[in-house]
Amino acid sequence: MNKCTVKDAINDGIPIIMGFIPIAMAFGILSKSANLTLLETLGFSMIVFAGASQFIAVNLLIAGAGFGEIILTTLLVNFRHFLFSASIAPKLTKDMKKFAPLIAFGLTDELFSIASLKEKPLTKEYLLVLEFCGYSALAVGTLLGYVLGGVLPPVVQLSMGIALYALFIAILVPEMKKSFKVVILLTLSGLTNTLCLYAFNLPQGWSIVISIILVSVLGLFIKVAEREVCYE
Amino acid sequence: MNNIYMLILGMMIVTYLPRFIPFVLMNNKKIPPKVEEFLSYIPYAALGALVIPGFITAIPGHILASVGGIVAALILGYFNGKVIIPVVGAICTCMLLVNLGI
C-alpha cells in the first residue's frame, strides 16, 4: 500500500495555510495593540505555536492577569493535545520515532485532525512538511499582521474566519459517508460540548476534554451496522 | 509584568508537554485492543467538539453567514474529495453573505 508523500503534505498544507494566515494576522494586530514588541509577538507564534491560546494569553495580558494565571489557562486549553498525541503515537513507525520530539511540537488541532484521518500510512516526510506549512503560515501571518495591520478588506478578513471550520468539515465528510458511526460520534461530541459550555458553564478547555473522553468511551459500546463500503 | 519572554517560555512548556509526553509513555508499549479502539475514536470526538458549537461564531456577528459557509463546505465536501474546494467555497459563500448584509 502506498504511503503519504510530500505531495500529499503540500496538498493538505495549502488549506491549512489559508486558514492560518488570517488568524495569525489577527493575532499580530491584537498583539501590537497590546503594546508587545514584534519580537515578543513572533515569540508567541514561533515558540509557543498554539493558535487559540495565544489569543487568550494576550487578551489576559491586556486585562492585567498575572503570568501564573495565563500559563495555567494555557495548560487547560491545550490539555486536549495530550489525548491527540496519545491517539497518533501508535501510528508512528520506528523510523519516525526519532522525530517524535519535533512532530509533537507541531500537533495543533488542525494538523492533528488532518494527519490522523489520513487513510494511507503516515510518514515522517508527510508529517514534517505538513507541520512546516502550518508553522510557517502562523509565523508569516503574525509578521504580516503586526507590520501591515488590517490590510485585508474587512469582509475578506471576517469571512476567512470560516476557513478552519470548513477544513474540519472537508476532512470529515468523506468519513461520514463511509461510516454512520462517525456521524453518531460527531453528533454526540458536539452535543456534549454544547451542553458542557452552555448548561454547565464549564470553561472551553474542560468542556472539550470531557467531550472527547466521554464520547470515545461511548464509542466502545456503540455498535452500528455498517453499510458495506462499495468501490465504484 | 516585566519579562514577556518568561511568559512565552512558560506557555511553551505547558503547550509542548501535553503534546510530547504521550509519545514517551507509549513508546514500544503493547497497547490493549480496547485502549487502541478508544484512541481511534479520539479524532472524531475531538472534531465534533471543535466544530460544534464553535462554528456558529466563526464570523462574529454573522451567525447566518457562518451557517451558510458550513452548509457550503458540507455540500462541496460531499461531491469533492479534495480539502481545498470546500474551504475556498465556504470562504466565498461567507463573503457573499456578509456582503449581502446577512
How are the SSEs placed, and which strands pair?
The complex is a heterodimer of chains A (232) and B (102).
Chain A: H1 6-33, H2 38-48, H3 52-62, H4 67-78, H5 80-88, H6 94-97, H7 100-105, H8 109-116, H9 124-148, H10 154-159, H11 163-178, H12 180-199, H13 204-221
Helix pairs in contact in A: 1-2, 1-9, 2-9, 3-4, 5-8, 11-12, 12-13
Chain B: H1 4-25, H2 33-51, H3 63-79, H4 84-99
Helix pairs in contact in B: 3-4
What's the short version?
The complex is a heterodimer of chains A (232) and B (102). Chain A is mostly helical and 232 residues long. Chain A is built from 13 helices and no strands.
Characterise the protein shown here.
The complex is a heterodimer of chains A (232) and B (102). Chain A is mainly α and 232 residues long. Chain A has two domains: 6-160, no CATH class; 179-232, no CATH class. Chain A is built from 13 helices and no strands. Chain A has helices at residues 6-33, 38-48, 52-62, 67-78, 80-88, 94-97, 100-105, 109-116, 124-148, 154-159, 163-178, 180-199, 204-221. In chain A, helix 1 (6-33) packs antiparallel against helix 2 and helix 1 runs parallel beside helix 9 (124-148). Chain A is globular, with a radius of gyration of 19 Å. The model of chain A has no long low-confidence stretch (mean pLDDT 90). With 102 residues, chain B is mostly helical. Chain B has one domain. In chain B, 73% of the residues lie in helices and 0% in strands. Chain B has helices at 4-25, 33-51, 63-79, 84-99. Chain B is flat, with a radius of gyration of 20 Å. Chains A and B meet through helix 1, helix 2, helix 3, helix 4 and helix 5 of A and helix 1, helix 2, helix 3 and helix 4 of B.
